[in-house]
Design brief:
Blueprint lengths: L2 H37 L1 E5 L2 E9 L3 E5 L6 H11 L5 E6 L14 H15 L4 E6 L3 H10 L4 E7 L18 H9 L1 H10 L1 H7 L4 H4 L4 H12 L8 H6 L10 H21 L27 H8 L10 H13 L3 H5 L6 E2 L6 E4 L14 E4 L2 H10 L11 H14 L12 H12 L4 H8 L14 H8 L9 H9 L13
Parallel strand pairs: 3-4, 3-5, 5-6
Antiparallel strand pairs: 1-2, 2-4, 7-8, 8-9
Helix pairs in contact: 1-6, 3-4, 13-15, 13-17
């Protein structure tokens, strides 16, 4: 046999072996997926679909799996540690197996989804068994819903974050981990032909496992093998690093410290110890650089954002909120938390009221104000008034994520530095360039003025007349298209059912 024939034969054998591995891996993975889907249940929470499994009888125990897991890993954990005489509820966290990756997949959102599931199952209180990446949402559940949480057992409590190039001391490079967690064929092949190396890739080294009792060795190896199907866990693994709280900006931290400083001083003043030193007196963080949010240019708003169809197919609330931000200068949080009673559409001068409520404070005392409605914001408010924006009440994170995603996808951000807050800055800039009175500008923006205040800032008719100086023209087709696609929000559609 010539060397050419030998090479050809070897290549054919390699191809045949590869094909066989792919077919066997696909069959094994398919059987595994079918088994998981046959025994699971699904429920739609406020943050999307969550997958779960319930078994046993007795006091309820919520099982929250670790990184790379799913409800099947939770079951393995419960069966290894939980014992009998208990009802276990094992869930798949965001992005794992059949659970959705929420639009805002934060630790708080995961905790809220868990309590939604408990409500669905009629469970008033549950003990919690959590491991690794499941510990942060378990702790958040206890923080937000203490009456729903019983005893807690937390294992390997350090939060997991996805591997980065900076990870040192790993037995294989970072890209190998991505391949393992993203390819079912590769993962299955490693479980059959390189189990020891696979276990070491997850820090289950032979020298560590060898000292464990046999049942614990079986548990560890079952965890590693249980990553299949790996591809259906990858979204969850990638979310582990972003599921916690985002870093707090220095200015935000300083504001929180200032609140603590004031609270501390006011308390000791109340108890008669006014001279007591305040430990927070000189505490502050220095910002390295301040990021300025630029305003949208008027040309951009008129030709892009107000173009007919620019926001089509979005949630109707997001479309109307966008339009209301343009001519009111409100903070996004002020618009999304308007209640029906805050809309005064039938008054001689239509307006909205920004007010504190028993369940929500405004940013400052000067934030309370009445803002006349003009232009496109008036048209949007007329359609929003019967129901307001209940979907986004007190859900600023969800609103911001949805809005920024939509703006990016439609190319409506004027630059990478522009945000939704840029509408507020644009509103202020337009008032300034139109020489609108400084005091009125402060009042409409909800800012504290630096000069003495006389009167109430002028009548609503006066405020409207001033705002009409800066109002953007708009095409009537903007609202026509909106009503055509959102009949329930059209004028005359009536109030939403209670």
């Amino acid at each position: 046999m010539s060397w050419r024939h030998a090479i050809l034969v070897n290549l054919l054998m390699l191809m045949a072996t590869t094909l066989l591995i792919i077919l066997l891996a696909a069959r094994e993975t398919g059987k595994r997926i079918a088994h998981l889907e046959a025994e699971r249940s699904l429920f739609n929470t406020r943050h999307g679909t969550i997958e779960y499994l319930v078994w046993g009888e007795g006091p309820h125990v919520l099982v929250v799996h670790g990184a790379g897991g799913g409800f099947d890993q939770g079951r393995l954990l419960a069966e290894s540690l939980g014992g009998e005489g208990l009802t276990f509820i094992s869930v798949s966290r965001f992005g794992y197996l059949g659970s959705d990756l929420s639009e805002v997949p934060s630790t708080r959102a995961q905790a809220e989804a868990l309590v939604d599931l408990l409500d669905h199952l009629g469970v008033d209180q549950a003990h919690v068994l959590a491991m690794s990446g499941g510990v942060p949402p378990a702790l958040k559940l206890a923080e937000l819903f203490p009456n729903r949480t019983g005893r807690m057992a937390l294992l390997s409590s350090a939060p997991f974050t996805p591997f980065t190039p900076e990870v040192e001391g790993r037995p294989v490079p970072t890209w190998v981990y991505s391949a393992l967690l993203g390819n079912d064929t590769v993962y299955w092949a490693l479980t059959k032909n390189a189990r020891r190396q696979l276990e070491e890739a997850f820090d289950a080294r032979a020298d560590l496992i060898g000292n464990l009792p046999s049942e614990e060795q079986t548990f560890v190896r079952s965890l590693v093998e249980g990553f299949l199907p790996a591809s259906r866990r990858l979204s969850g693994v990638n979310n582990e690093g972003s599921a916690g709280h985002s870093p707090v900006a220095p200015n935000t931290a300083n504001r929180h410290i200032g609140n603590i400083r004031s609270l501390y001083g006011d308390y000791f003043k109340h108890v008669g110890e006014e001279e007591r030193p305040n430990p927070f007196r000189n505490m502050h963080f220095k910002a390295k650089a301040r990021t300025e949010v630029p305003p949208y240019s008027s040309e951009w708003v008129r030709t892009k954002v107000l173009a007919p169809g620019a926001t089509r197919k979005w949630r109707p609330e997001l479309q109307l909120i966008t339009l209301m931000l343009i001519e009111t200068g409100c903070r996004p949080s002020e618009i999304i938390n308007l209640r029906v009673e805050d809309f005064h559409i039938d008054e001689p001068v239509p307006y909205i009221s920004i007010r504190a409520r028993t369940d929500r404070e405004v940013k400052t005392d000067t934030s309370e104000r009445d803002i006349p409605l003009v232009g496109i914001s008036l048209e949007a408010a007329r359609r929003a008034a019967p129901r307001a924006f209940a979907h986004y009440y007190d859900k600023g994170e969800l609103f911001s994520a949805n809005m920024m995603k939509n703006f990016r996808n439609r190319g409506l951000l004027e630059s990478p530095d522009h945000k939704i807050y840029s509408f507020r800055h644009a509103f202020e800039k337009r008032m300034q360039e139109a020489n609108i009175d400084y005091g009125l500008r402060c009042l409409l923006m909800g800012h504290k003025t630096t000069r003495p205040v006389y009167g109430d800032g002028g009548s609503l008719a006066y405020r409207r007349a001033e705002l009409l100086k800066i109002v953007h023209p708009f095409d009537a087709r903007v609202m026509d298209l909106f009503e055509r696609e959102n009949l329930g929000w059209a004028l005359g559609a009536g109030r939403a059912p209670c």
